[in-house]
């Protein structure tokens, strides 16, 4: 099943509310996905700096790391975000590579990505989503069908710098696509079908495609049921499979564009009673963006 | 204080923000055909699923807001009005009565419904009238792909456009489309509008309050080539 929530703010004055509103949407979607949850949130960036969201086993002392690099670090349960001047990326990756207990969950100027096993409310609470602010966020509640219930199998999946993907549905040709992508050097950590979709988008971008072109290529190459929501530094995109098996509802007001697997997830958003509410059409790539 | 309160002389208002959906449905399902309490208003639906399902008393239930999945499902004789949009499967398996959605409806509206009338003022998405078995459906806007898939009987009136594969594997339902049809499904074809068709269409347009002439519509129906196996049709099965 799974649930997807996305919120893209047009009105800057709502930015401090982003985490709270997103957590509320994920909470409603618990009965579409109670086994794990995750979210990507696009907060204020620091010019010339990059962020890594890192994950390690519970109890890992992330603060020991920045001491080595002289970096700022914020800890969120078993995740941490480190920020560093962009020119130090290669150096820091090299050091992190010597710590197999640490995974780099995401990279971005603005995006931070958190996910874990448990009820969406618990996951939101563990990472402190309610207090986070930003311009947009994408979240997911998972009811696993395709692979194990693990943190790695939770969504979102990172597809590149400041990019992530969440998925409701199941892909039927993911093993074949995974083999093709693996030959092209795309690395996979799980047997999860969504990771293949994320890898497919990442591969297309690596080959020079733009994001909308990558999503059109997904329509041609990925077989199965899907509603994808893709987060980017400046907004988000939506794509449903041509049969439109998986639900999607959008709401737009002067203040925001919101995505929910069901309208219920949108019912608490401010001004929803006057929003333009519609279903995105199948096999059509949608984007909402604003100047970075 | 009970969530159900008489707001006017004859309307009982039920607040789904204050009492559970099961209580609403149990109350409505418990009404018998002779009840004097015939007007009900449902507040704060908030997209909840299965609102006002399985009604058998001739009452009018007005839902003030957006409804979720299967709203007014299995309706048998009641009038359900949604002052908002409705999710997947509105009026699914309706037997009789009226369901009127003032906004849009999601996929599979009126699925498998045997009777009654479903009116949608806005658009319906995919699979509208899938496997319909006698219901009348009037959509004032557009319908999505695979509408009237395997539709067996009844009438589907589409005042806007139809998406891909309209009437795929159609049986004997009548389809009337005023706008364009993106493509016809297997075994669906244009038919002559008979006098009987015209009478049915005029009646449904009047009931739905649509100001249009039957001549503006094209009638589609089954070519009946898939009723029995024929090797030349293998590609269409």
Automatic annotation (TrEMBL), chain A:
Record field: transmembrane: none
CDD domains: GlxB (cd01907)
This protein's record includes keyword Cell membrane: no
InterPro entries linked: GATase_2_dom, Ntn_hydrolases_N
Signal sequence interval, chain numbering: none
Key words of the record: Glutamine amidotransferase, Transferase
Limits of the Glutamine amidotransferase type-2 domain: 2-291
Molecular functions (GO terms): transferase activity
Protein's name according to its UniProt entry: Glutamate synthase domain-containing protein 1
Species whose genome carries this gene: Acidocella aromatica
Lineage, highest ranks first: Bacteria, Pseudomonadati, Pseudomonadota, Alphaproteobacteria, Acetobacterales
């Amino acid at each position: 099943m799974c649930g997807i929530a996305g919120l893209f703010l047009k009105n800057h004055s709502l930015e401090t509310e982003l985490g709270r509103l997103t957590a509320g949407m994920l909470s409603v979607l618990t009965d579409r996905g109670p086994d794990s949850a995750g979210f990507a949130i696009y907060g204020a960036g620091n010019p010339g700096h990059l962020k890594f969201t890192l994950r390690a086993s519970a109890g890992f002392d992330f603060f020991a790391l920045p001491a080595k690099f002289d970096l700022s670090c914020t800890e969120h349960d078993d995740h941490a975000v480190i920020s560093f001047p962009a020119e130090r990326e290669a150096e820091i990756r090299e050091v992190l590579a010597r710590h197999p207990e640490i995974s780099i969950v995401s990279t971005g100027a603005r995006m931070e990505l958190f996910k874990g096993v448990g009820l969406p409310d618990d996951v939101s609470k563990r990472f402190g989503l309610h207090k986070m602010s930003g311009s947009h966020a994408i979240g997911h509640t998972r009811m696993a069908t395709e692979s194990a219930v693990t943190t790695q199998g939770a969504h979102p999946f990172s597809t590149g710098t400041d990019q992530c993907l969440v998925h409701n549905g199941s892909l039927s040709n993911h093993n074949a696509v995974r083999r093709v992508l693996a030959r092209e050097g795309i690395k996979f950590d799980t047997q999860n079908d969504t990771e293949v979709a994320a890898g497919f988008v990442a591969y297309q971008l690596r080959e020079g495609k733009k994001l909308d072109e990558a999503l059109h290529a997904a329509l041609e190459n990925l077989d199965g049921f899907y509603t994808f929501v893709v987060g980017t530094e400046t907004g988000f995109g939506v794509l449903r499979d041509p049969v439109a098996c998986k639900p999607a509802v959008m709401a737009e007001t002067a203040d925001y564009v919101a995505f929910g697997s069901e309208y219920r997830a949108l019912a608490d958003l401010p001004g929803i009673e006057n929003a333009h509410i519609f279903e995105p059409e199948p096999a059509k790539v949608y984007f909402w963006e604003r100047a970075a | 204080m009970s969530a159900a309160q008489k707001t006017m002389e004859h309307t009982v208002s039920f607040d789904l923000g204050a009492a559970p959906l099961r209580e609403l449905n149990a109350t409505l399902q418990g009404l018998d055909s002779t009840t004097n309490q015939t007007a009900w208003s449902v507040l704060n639906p908030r997209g909840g699923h299965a609102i006002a399902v399985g009604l058998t008393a001739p009452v009018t239930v007005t839902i003030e807001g957006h409804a979720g999945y299967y709203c007014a499902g299995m309706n048998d004789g009641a009038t359900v009005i949604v002052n908002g949009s409705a999710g997947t499967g509105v009026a699914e398996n309706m037997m009789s009565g009226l369901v009127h959605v003032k906004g849009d409806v999601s996929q599979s509206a009126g699925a498998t419904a045997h009777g009654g009338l479903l009116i949608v003022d806005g658009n319906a998405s995919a699979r509208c009238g899938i496997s319909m078995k006698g219901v009348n459906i009037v959509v004032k806007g557009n319908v999505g792909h695979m509408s009237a898939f395997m539709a067996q009987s009844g009438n589907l009136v589409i005042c806007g456009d139809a998406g891909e594969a309209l009437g795929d594997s159609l049986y004997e339902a009548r389809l009337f489309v005023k706008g364009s049809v993106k493509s016809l499904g297997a075994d669906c074809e244009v038919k002559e509008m008979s006098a009987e068709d015209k009478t049915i269409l005029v009646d449904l347009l009047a009931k739905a309050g649509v100001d249009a002439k039957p001549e503006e519509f094209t009638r589609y129906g089954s070519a009946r080539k898939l009723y029995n196996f024929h090797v030349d049709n293998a590609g269409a099965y």
